[in-house]
Amino acid sequence: MPSVFSEFALLLLMSAVAGGVSLLLRQPLLIAYIVIGIVAGPAVFGLVTAHDQIDLLAQVGIAVLLFVVGLKLDLQHIRHIGPVALATGLGQLAFTICFGFGLTLLMGKGAMEAIYIAVALTFSSTIIIVKLLSDKRELDSLHGRIAVGFLIVQDLAVVLAMMVMSALRGGGGGGDADLFEVAASLAGRVGLTIAGLYLLMRYLLPRLVSMMARSQELLLIFAIAWGTSLAALGEWAGFSKEAGAFLAGFSLASTVYRDAINARLTGIRDFLLLFFFIDLGAKLDFSTLGSEIWPAAVLSLFVLIGNPLIVMAIMGYMGYRKRTGFLAGLTVAQISEFSIIFVAMGISLGHVGTEVLGLTTLVGLVTIALSTYMILYSHPLYERLAPWLKPFERQRPFRELAVAVERHDLARADVIVIGLGRYGSRLALGLKEAGLAVLGVDFDPETARALRRQRLPVRYGTASTPPSSTACRSPRPPGW
Amino acid sequence: MSSLPDLDSNRNLLRALREHGFAGEIAIVARDEAQGMALKQYGAPTVLYPLRNAVDYVVESLTAIIRQEKTP
Fold it and tell me: Model ipTM?
């Protein structure tokens, strides 16, 4: 029997190799880690014996992860979400929870299990999506910005769901008769925590942190100590470790050392989370998992197809074109690492059994792997599916057409500026100020509206779809 | 001269320079007006606007060309 140390070395080596393979397949690393967990676990090779050690590292990893989530929670962001992303985000949350809950109940699960699974199905992975969109240079596009907006809504919902479930601990089996009692105890505990945190943040923490920050290494140790301590305290006080760690991060979010702490913690977080995912894979119990295959398949299909349809329906209703709705909808076609963490928390709270975690992990593996390719090949996919997507577009997608109705005298324009990003809009406004007749063209309704307020005529149009005949009536403005 | 793209890094840089008693001149590149204002607030003595400069140059030369063509 090899020592624990060499077992760890082997696991890390396997993870590095598998990570390299997943990079070639353009898959997120966490897929590789879970697969390594399965391969090294009892299901295949049975290499993993140091369960306690791995489990401890995984738990510290989760605490650090939620600490960073709290640290990065910026109330400024919330104001920037915008009404469209907010409506889409909340609509998707509500729809997915309701449908997911019903679907899971139909498959013969208990109410508490169904709640956990339904909530887990709603989240999509901000880290994975933002990485994919920025690799494709679509973060700044209309669908990219809407997607990032509702991902922020989801991130807030993750935190809220974890807090609520942590507070439900006393409630146990989840009878709805003591709903009032649970709400009151939740309000009481949350109030007490907020008051305590406020006092700490106001009087003690700033001085303590600036003292610690004199040494960068000490700042790192302090941050981890603070995160794990509040996590332990949270567990002791009857919340969960996750909620405690999150609050620890949040209590430091307004200090000037936020970015320094965040930068130092990211590497440690990723390293420790590796063990969470390996642990997850190693604990998948294939003897009971056989019966979860069908539920996993049904729920995966629901996430892969149902979630995008919900977003497309909401966005179509709100007056977006089917293309924008489709591309934004694809970003919710997978569940998140937070879904898995959320269910794992449910187990430690005693709300659900391990088979729910196995089910969620399976759904996570399938949906993350497939939706990665769906997003990578979103444009060819759209071309194929476009004919069937008609129902998801209004007769007049007014939000994206709003700017197209005005008839500008194309013939009289000296300059047509196509694409009104940072450079284009500045250029158009500059040329207009210099006394030229300028016409702008862009497909983003928000941009068009903002520039119109500055009295710049803007036309609606894209370069990726064939232009409408009216837009091309004057191919060559005079003077050119 | 700092051409770091994000505001937080520049703010950290300014703070670090101040803490170390840097005595030289400092200039920081801003993406847009809002960032420029923020940089000024953090105490950046000189803020550069490369985008504005580039646009100004193009506007000038384009305007000159079009004027010339309009008045033969």
Answer: 0.74
